[in-house]
Amino acid sequence: MEMPEYFEFCGRVNLVAGHDALEQIPGLLLSMGAKNLMIITDQGVSRAGLVEILVQSLDSRITVRTIQDEVPPDSDIDIVHTLARRYRKNTCDAIISLGGGSVMDTAKGMNILVSEGADNLRAFTGAGVLKHRLKPLIAVPTTAGTGSEVTQVAVIADPDHGRKLFFTSHFLIPDAAVIDPRMTLTLPPHITAATAMDALSHAVEASICLAENPLSTALAHDAIDLIRCHLPRVVNHPDDPAGRLALATAAALAGMAFSNSMVGMVHTLGHAVGSVCHVPHGACMAVLLPHGMTYNYHRTQTQLADLLLPLAGEEIFARTAPRDRAQKAIDQVRQINQGLHLATAGAHAVRLKDITDKNRQILVPLHRLPEIAGTALGDGSIFYNPEDLEYDDCLMVLEAAFHGEPLDRSSIRKG
Amino acid sequence: MTDLSHFLCRTKTAFGAHALSHLPFDLSGMDACKPFVITDQPARDAGLHNLLTAAFKDSDMALGITTLTDFDDIEPLYHLFVDKGYDSILALGTGPVVRTAKRLNLAVCMGPEILRSDAGPQQINRPLLPLAFIPTLPSDGCETTMTLVLDRFFVSPFLSADLAVVTPEAMLGAPDNRILDAGLTSLAVCCQAFVLSGSPLVRPHAATGIRLVMDTLLPLIQPPGQDELLCQKAKKNRQLPLAKLTLASVLSGYIRSHIPDLNTYLIQVSGMDMALALIPMLDTCKGASPWPGKLLLPLTDPDRYTAVPGHLRPEAAIQTIQQLVRDLSWTLPEEVSHGDA
Q1: Looking at this predicted complex, what is its ipTM?
Q2: pLDDT, tens only, A363-406
Q3: CATH code assigned to A189-411
Q4: Minimal CA separation from A154 to chain B, in Å
């Protein structure tokens, strides 16, 4: 087994997964000495009736002091400060974050303020600033993609200063992540597809990027296997609870994997596309993933070849010659994307130019690719990519992803 | 997937050369600045405490170092710790050292009376002082569990070490029977966890542990050639595989607490006995789930796994373990190996 010269792995979250996992929450809270809850969510989750399901799963030992459902799609510092004031006013002693990445990040940011007795979140940006355990936080994801429920990071916008604030600490890892398929049953197929591809991109990049390690890779391979086995069925049968549980679990495994081995250029470019064109993250990841794998092919052939088994299954792995496995793994990702494109009647895009909003307006126009490439160079994940990336490289990959054309391997930088 | 699964590992794992140099940063990240090192005589004799001194040389942390001679009486340690104002514990050694560190941590944080056998039930539901474990040998994994067994049985996630730092430079030499015992214990725990656990997080930990044992155990046990025996470099070359095997022990400790059925099968005295008990256990389980067959993957490699038809994989997994046990038995002197593989 290949081992890096040095690695760290920290997965300090109690992962509780199952069909009635929500019912475990009272016991988890009491074991942490907490019983006065603030529930943080967003209006979409609230309207979908998921807050009621959560509240009904609690019992008389737990008091829900307040439910806050105003988290915006992009978490910002104002809502964090507002929620911290309400947490104190309602004398809460624990938090449940119910939602996707933005809700999770908001809850983590608010937890910093209420635990540190502080009023200004900006004072806690960066890595290693937190020194103490925070208040009990239980994360209940309602999408199966971001993995935020198990990660040690939070990203919160600071609109007054036109920047995003990054927070990294083991203390930001929620105390528990409760994975219950009831929370994702209502996701429409194209969002299911996009979020699952987000999880897949976490898993693939965790396996090939510079900080990969054997534990992260094992988690990532299991996540990929679960996605391969369950995603096609769930997209066609969204009310399949076993499949939903598997996909949500895969997202958590992939989240834990990348939280410990970082991600690379697929996220570098994806973050930039999202930032410049306000494109849903999962949609970017799906389109960019095969291009990122191709760009790094010459540096990661062994890892890519190993990915073929979880990506394609035993039969395809066994009948593919070892020298062809890396390319086959890339082809397999394209095939998964194509299958999702068909299953969602085209709603799952396979080219950047096909990503649209709900009014069918194109979100990524060709003329903005240079701006996206420039923005990408400032993203921290670029340092973990196996092959170097400069502006021209970013633009080349973005253009290929825009038109849906494979990258020309001969024009890829080598070292 | 099963209906409900739990997994919690509070310990951060660090592995690799110079891993100790990260310790000051990790401790300061937990607001600790005055660590108390507990070690044992073999580690002290080998000068391993000097590795810690060197790692903290450029930090502004002052280390206190004590070598344990009496593992039963922690009162002097307790007074020393409190009087000198230490705020964290580094356990450099093996099981007895870690057990003492956990006892000391409990006594300091919850009062020494908690350790008395007549203290009544106690719930440990808040963090103790930062505790880092630096193993010097592969073991049965008890150091990284969330339990402490004295006259009474304590179990809490907060009893787990905050950090497990596995580094080749801290590996002591060990007799073959000790390496064999540790390796086979880790293999047995990880294989059973892989097959019996419903937790999706247990399996990747178990699979990694199995791969580490399969990669390192046999080469470590095989008798060295005469040249190697004389060569200091050869001793150094053993440190990395020993560290890998120790990492497998650490991982097996993490997953032990999550396998309720484990103790049913694993009340065995030696690693060899546990490995032998594994075989009938796998035989019993092989029709009940796909996992005995899937076990072949971490035991071998993707090519060998996919080359075996699905229905034959459980048997192939069993044969792989039997072959390892046979190879180890032939390699070892008769008094070390026992049981008929």
Answers
A1: 0.94
A2: 999 999 999 999 999 888 999 999 999 999 999 999 999 999 99
A3: 1.20.1090.10
A4: 18
